[in-house]
């Protein structure tokens, strides 16, 4: 290096940063490409004006943390990329970019960051190319004059607790693990790395939210300025945040291949102040601005922003409403809708008075099995002195009918108990047209003090789709998965049930008040076993949040001692959800349009024993 080059490099290292906001930098330098954007070309902040304030908060004096709680399709990742690009070009320093996992971090570095750098001349001239032989410049790290950016997952304690950083980006923090290895909360670990740069550090948190009371991004949002993007009503000129409760729409329903579908005809926003309706095209062109609900937080240096998809130029209101209609009767889909479209946490509804309401709405069936039910499944809970069971009828879209609930007295190792189970499996449940149905799948709990006995008895009846199951608590567990094991010389099949997700779905289904998908019917006939005690047991648990070691965890806790009705409904539902039922064939048979498939009897099963093959959902 010559003397002049050394002087020039020294000057560049020590000269003060250019007074340029992130918005100004992005409008001048950022180029979007078709690999990562639906609208390639030069970046235009005016395309989505709500992006201006969050980006410029990055260079606002006195602000050290920016929190963005937002739906999908609003461009929050692009905001982070613009902040990063401006820092690399104008005011470099050590950076850390954290994704939920190492795999996400690697993909983000290769697909989003590398693409941005290649497309922007000012960045391409400064960021060194990644070389596999250069340990200091790999996919996980980009170096440039004055600093570097490291990409890592929230599950990597070494990187999170490593050297000091000035800039920190934490993306999708509600998907972070509870602990980075055994080191503790990844958010706390990462933020400690900025302590050396307290006078000029910048920390950015972004995420779609998850469950109310557990969401990290919601907690961070509430600690900040709580800014919402409000739009001006063209009639009364009041400013409002667009909420789904103020969206009005018209729809038609249709039936296609036995499944209900929706066509959304008209959608508009009804102003909460003047009650006038405004269409999507008009409202998206009205003046809008950020309004702080907690302006005092400015003194703490934290600005927080909340966005949903309604004013995004990349969203369509008809698509939003259609997503809601498809999700409204499914707890998991509805949670996704709230989180990723509305940018809101999902909250389980209050269950007070629910047992009484369910008991009161019991109905007279037109037969033992009402019209609409196509498949019968059974769930069985084992106790030391009894078995409790429920037989449930299901439609193709998970509308359910309680058929029979009862108790079999006796220890699970008693032969007489299993003879009664056989009687339930053999029994034909009549329909109004004279056709009959049998239980097609049974899941029996193997927990407790008689695990091996349950395994043995279920193995004997496996040809009738009778399987032992074990419940597994915890978040994000697969609802039903099969495991194979050896019972003597034969192979046995057992199932693991993610009981918490099942409980959540059942609790949500109890709130549905109109017959249709997911609605739960119950018979008024007292001989069916659906008394008040059953409904108290069905609504016997509630979701509870616990704060331990700086982390919020969810558990299901009893509010009523007898919870067997909830468990057996969960097992019966799991049996229904796992198997691939031929609904069209069953429906034709039950309507008398073709001969009903012969039920699987003990004699037929033994005759075909050597040819039997079990795959997911199919017994041949």
Name the CATH architecture of the largest domain: 2-Layer Sandwich
Summarize the biggest pleated sheet: 10 strands, mixed
- Share of β-strand residues: 25-35%
* Uncertain runs: 609-620
CATH topology (fold) name of the largest domain: Nucleotidyltransferase, domain 5
Fill in the keyword field for this structure.
disordered C terminus; Nucleotidyltransferase, domain 5; 8-stranded mixed β-sheet; 20 helices; single chain; 2 domains; 620 residues
Give an account of the 3D structure.
This protein is of the alpha/beta class and 620 residues long. The chain folds into two domains: 14-231 and 288-316, Rossmann fold (3-Layer(aba) Sandwich); 354-619, Nucleotidyltransferase, domain 5 (2-Layer Sandwich), CATH 3.30.420. 29% of the residues lie in helices and 27% in strands. The protein is built from 20 helices and 29 strands. Strands 3, 4, 5, 6, 7, 8, 9, 10, 14 and 15 form a ten-stranded mixed β-sheet that branches. An eight-stranded mixed β-sheet has the order 23-24-22-21-16-17-18-25. It has a three-stranded antiparallel β-sheet with strand order 11-12-13. It is globular.
